[in-house]
Design brief:
Radius of gyration: 16 Å
Number of helices: 6
Bound molecules: folic acid
CATH superfamily: Dihydrofolate Reductase, subunit A
Number of domains: 1
Structural class: alpha/beta
CATH topology: Dihydrofolate Reductase, subunit A
Shape: globular
CATH class: Alpha Beta
CATH architecture: 3-Layer(aba) Sandwich
């Protein structure tokens, strides 16, 4: 059913909430992508046999390198208003035409559901998820710099006063994702970034 479910957004964004540029990620941060991969694959609780589900928009799906599509060991649900191109017919992804249909497919459908549900973008899909009260968690990788982004995350969860989101302590982030997340600023390819967790109040 679609009751009792909760959604987790995972996103990397700059201070001005930039998330993308020209249909791809604006930066090259392998350690962040590897965090994304581990966190979205990890069962919760650890003994849960169900695969986690990723919900994403068509443009995000197309932005993933073909050799990595669909993202392995996770159910990939793609939202598109248009019919699925034939080239994606047998690639293992599930295509739906609306956000509610994506939730329904994630919560039930073939493959059972019962795993975590992650919303992985992009901007249009993040907006729908942020407007949905069932989105309880935002796993934010904060990226320093601007990069000339042309695509933006819709809500500044760092603005705790006005948005109803609160940053959780580093220990709570570790407990939530089930690993010892590195604390504090990291740097790759001259780009500084760090891992944060926000929860809806
Ligand atoms: N969240 C975060 N924190 N960083 C991101 O870069 C990010 N990107 C997306 C959604 N949420 C994010 C959407 N874009 C891959 C590529 C692009 C992408 C999401 C995932 C990808 O290739 N992932 C593989 C490989 C990870 C690796 O290189 O280790 C995966 O298995 O997840």
């Amino acid at each position: 059913t679609t009751q009792n479910i909760n959604l987790t957004i995972i996103v990397a964004a700059t201070h001005s909430l930039g998330i993308g540029k020209s249909g791809t990620l604006p930066w090259h941060l392998p350690r962040d992508l590897s965090y994304f991969s581990r966190v979205t694959k990890r069962p919760s609780p650890p003994t849960n046999p169900a695969l986690n589900t990723l919900i994403m928009g068509r443009k995000t799906y197309l932005s993933i390198p073909p050799k990595s599509r669909p993202l392995p060991s996770r159910r990939n649900i793609v939202i598109s208003r248009f019919p699925r191109p034939d080239s994606f017919n047998n690639d293992g992804s599930t295509w739906v035409t609306s956000f509610p249909d994506a939730i329904a497919a994630a919560a039930g459908g073939d493959g059972g559901g019962g795993g975590r549900i992650f919303v992985i973008g992009g901007a249009e899909i993040y907006k729908l998820a942020m407007e949905d009260e069932r989105t309880r968690n935002v796993l934010l990788t904060s990226v320093e710099g601007e990069f000339g982004c042309d695509t933006f995350f819709p809500v500044d969860v760092r603005d705790e006063e006005n948005t109803g989101w609160a940053r959780r302590r580093h220990e709570e982030l570790c407990a939530f994702v089930g690993e010892e997340v590195p604390a504090g600023v990291r740097e790759e390819n001259g780009v500084r970034f760090w891992f944060e967790l926000y929860q809806r109040l």
